């Protein structure tokens, strides 16, 4: 598999804040690759370097085989970059924004319309609406259309679903899946852990460091922890007491339950007895299926 993006030992700081620390990863041509991590993990910094808007302190990055520092002009014509913040002209209409981005790259809307048709088609009902007056989901569709109008080889999407409602989020991932069929490489970042499974491979990133890279299924399968759900009417006291048990390695809130990471000697029945002695009479502890969020918690714990 040849690489669309190759990042080697990349480091970038802002003053004393280290945003990226010895990051290496590669994204294959035509791959849908996810960068998964919380706010402040370094995702936008990596995107800005790949989009040639920032230079690294050390290490290197190539996009389509071109170095981001030496060949920044060439790269800019070959990527479609959707920054985290809404980047379109709020005072221009839907149609004017699209025309503007097409003209920047010297292409006509007509020649590449097939690529954006499933996305832009949903905006056609209001071509004269100003971009600033669109809903979050519609803004996102327009931004994606504008990022695609010059038929880029690589799409760099920085947290495209942040702040968008759940239905639009899901629709957005469906649209990305159709672009995959057009063999466009997609590097997409998100802080929503549940979106990780929509990618072919993911890199988990935290505090500027890559924690692991693989397919979501292999990463989840490799969690390898003694994982349980725990519930009680008094979840706060339950969390406190579970964390005090020596045979509990970690315990954290997980949706409506707690997830308990047991040490090798953890026995749910014995733990339930101990909690009863502490006055918690309704505790239920049963095996849990780990997911990406558990993996992230485990990786950050191991990293520390
Ligand atoms: P993410 O996109 O994952 O939220 P960022 O790349 O935006 O992460 O930020 C990584 C770290 O760098 C954070 O600690 C952030 O506060 C810091 N940072 C980002 N941009 C700047 C900047 N222009 N000046 C100073 N610090 C910054």
List the main descriptive attributes of the protein structure presented here.
single chain, 304 residues, alpha/beta, 6-stranded mixed beta sheet, binds adenosine-5'-diphosphate
Provide a descriptive summary of the structure in words:
It is a single chain. Helix content is 35%, strand content 28%. The protein has 304 residues and is α/β, with parallel strands linked by helices. The strands form 3 sheets. A 6-stranded mixed sheet has the order 6-7-8-3-9-10, sandwiched between helices. Strands 2-1-4-5 form a 4-stranded antiparallel sheet, with helices on one face. A 4-stranded antiparallel sheet has the order 12-13-11-14, covered by helices on one side. Helix 3 runs parallel beside helix 5 (136-148) and helix 4 runs antiparallel to helix 5 (136-148). The radius of gyration is 23 Å and the shape is elongated. The mean pLDDT is 94. Bound molecules: adenosine-5'-diphosphate. Adenosine-5'-diphosphate is lined by residues 14, 17, 19, 37, 39-45.
